[in-house]
Amino acid sequence: MPVAQNLMTKEKIREIIAKRAAREFKKGDIVTLGIGLPTEVANYVPDETRVIFQSENGLLGAGRLHKGENPDPRVINAGGAYVEPIRGCCFYDTLMAFTIMRGGHIDATVLGALQVDGFGNLASWMIPNKFVPGMGGSMDLVVGSKRVIVVMEHTSKGQIKIVQKCDLPLTARGEVDLIITERCVFDVDKNGLLLKEINPIFSLDEIKASTGADFRVSSELCEMVL
């Protein structure tokens, strides 16, 4: 493990990733955030960007996490955490929720991953020998969204997560557009992975050593804004 990794807490790692992902949206985008780390992205989107967050459970216009007392137990995000509804939000049933997700109405989906590979394949829902209730709406979201952004720690317990080819059950094939970790940012295109940003506390050699997939380095490689 790189020395730099030891200097960051779990909370700091998640903050770096969530803040960087929050810079990917433009005003008016409809965005869905998956369970876990992706839900934290909502806390860092600038007010002037005015992104509209869609919750899988039937809310268009989910705001930031509820910080006060007496939250409305009916207003939650995909992870079941209480959120603030924004002015002008709307609520709808499951049928409409999946119509929005499958119909190409989502500008960007932000999801976590167990594995992502150099072909843009995503494995995000099943760990071998572990009980999993199902993949939820992730398959619909990934295929139906205009842009798919994966946010995750670069490695997990020493295991490489950006691999040459996924060996876990796939959520979707060839749908990932961008990968954001605490170490770097990869674009995913028809030619594979392109390293476009790097956290300055990590070296290029450290990125190569902790990434299982082949990748190109952008001629315009720059530092991540932390």
Gyration radius, rounded: 17 Å
The dominant shape is globular
In terms of structural class, how would the helical and strand content be classed? alpha/beta
Mean pLDDT: 90
Strand order of the largest sheet: 4-3-2-1-5-8-12-13-14-15
Q: What features would you highlight for this structure?
A:
single chain, 226 residues, alpha/beta, ten-stranded mixed beta sheet, three-stranded mixed beta sheet, globular
Protein architecture, described:
The protein is of the alpha/beta class and 226 residues long. Helix content is 17%, strand content 30%. It has five helices and 15 strands. It has helices spanning 3-6, 10-21, 94-102, 138-144, 204-209; strands spanning 30-33, 52-55, 59-65, 83-91, 108-111, 115-117, 122-123, 148-151, 155-156, 159-160, 162-163, 178-180, 184-189, 192-198, 215-223. The strands form three sheets. It has a ten-stranded mixed β-sheet with strand order 4-3-2-1-5-8-12-13-14-15, with helices on both faces. Strands 7-6-11 form a three-stranded mixed β-sheet, with no helix packed on it. Helix 5 (204-209) links the parallel strand 14 (192-198) and strand 15. The radius of gyration is 17 Å and the shape is globular. The chain starts with a helix and ends with a strand.
Topology:
Layout: H1 3-6, H2 10-21, E1 30-33, E2 52-55, E3 59-65, E4 83-91, H3 94-102, E5 108-111, E6 115-117, E7 122-123, H4 138-144, E8 148-151, E9 155-156, E10 159-160, E11 162-163, E12 178-180, E13 184-189, E14 192-198, H5 204-209, E15 215-223
Parallel strand pairs: 1-2, 1-5, 5-8, 6-11, 8-12, 14-15
Antiparallel strand pairs: 2-3, 3-4, 6-7, 9-10, 12-13, 13-14
